Give the backbone structure.
Amino acid sequence: MKCGNCGAACEDGDVFCPSCGAPVETPKKKAEPKPKQQEPKAAPNPASAPQTAPADEATQVMNPTGLRADAGTHTPSTCPVCGRALDPDEAFCSGCGARIPGVVAPEVPPAQSAPNGPMQGPGPMPFPGNVPGQPGMPNGQPGMTAAVKKKIPPLTIALIAALIVVVLFAAVALFGGKGNSSSGTAGTTASDQGTSSSSSSSSGGSSTCSTAPKATVATVDTMNDYLVTTVHFSSSCSGSSKDVFGSNNTEIKISDSDGLVASAVFDFSSDPVDISSSSAQARLAFATNQYWRVPEQIDATDLTVTVSTATAADGSASSPANGVMAGANAMGNDDRESAAHQALEDQISHDKSAASGFYYTYTTQLSSKRLDLDAEGKVWSYQDIWAEFLGFKSRYPNALLIWSNDYPTYTKKGPSEYYVTLSGESFSSTDDATGWCSANGYDSDHCLPVDLS
């Protein structure tokens, strides 16, 4: 049997190599001591001083080449640690691996390859009593420590590092990317998102409430031919910080108990309404094709306001004056035409009682128009007829609208289908009526005396 460390020959009973002291493979049976050897004594503590061999026994020493020296020196014949009988050339005890004093160990040749893989070089000198399989000595690899028993492959290290990076990025995406969950974009309705939201404003730390606010009409008046309403707003968003309404494409629809009164689309993004206080309000102007009641006939206490965001405008708006916001058309042309037609019919019904007073007295006729009439450079629509009547009404508060076929003076030659505007002024003679027309700048083609009988 050969030593797995230095290749030196070992006997079957050797536990440690007698040349280098490395442990050898443990034999299946315990080695029997030689007949001439005495019973091994109990091994003392390695830290204690070694026992002294008997004086009459010759001691042997090995020179650097491993040959006997004749210098008269003597080496122990038994191991000073375990008492095992020694061969003359043993530099290490083959029983316990202890270093034999006075014997020079030969040079250890390079280690041979072990069955489990190439050795990386001789390890630390084994402690007396260390045998393969005990702690501090890896099985099958003498001199190797447990720290280097198994290496982690580089590929495994790279995979672990990549997994750590992925976990870190996932954590950042999950927790680091979250911001203000209450932030939103002005101009989005609650019906679109299902919840109210707000976005930060640049002034005063306030935020923009994107949900349409509550609104009521406080006053109604006119400016030129515009219907001007003062509308009070209050926030529909929760939280006192959501105090600005700045949505563009916001439809303001005003109705009364008889139906639609006015409707237009306003842009509050350039001039947001501060709705943090009870005095929040805006003056909103509706053009003649955006309202369908005579302003003087509107009862502000009977009005309801519907505010809708994200309504597409049909056309653009032009403001009548500073401090007043004008709106664009909220409805398409056909819907506006239908609304104007209804407004004309409602006005005729409203004015019928007052018109009956001119059966036997005079007034002045200012206009007579019908649908699709080609006159004055255009083909007249219901919206045109309604807008003209509103213009007369703003200049002459007593103006009336009648349907010509309802009065004898227009049906003497057959049915008559015209919307007729009267000044509503009363005169005792045709001369007085004609004088009024001249005084107001009208010629006989645009103003004439009339009685309805």
In short: The helical segments are 154-176, 190-193, 333-355, 382-395, 430-439. The first strand starts at residue 198 and ends at 200. The chain is about 15% helix and 20% strand. The first helix runs from residue 154 to 176.
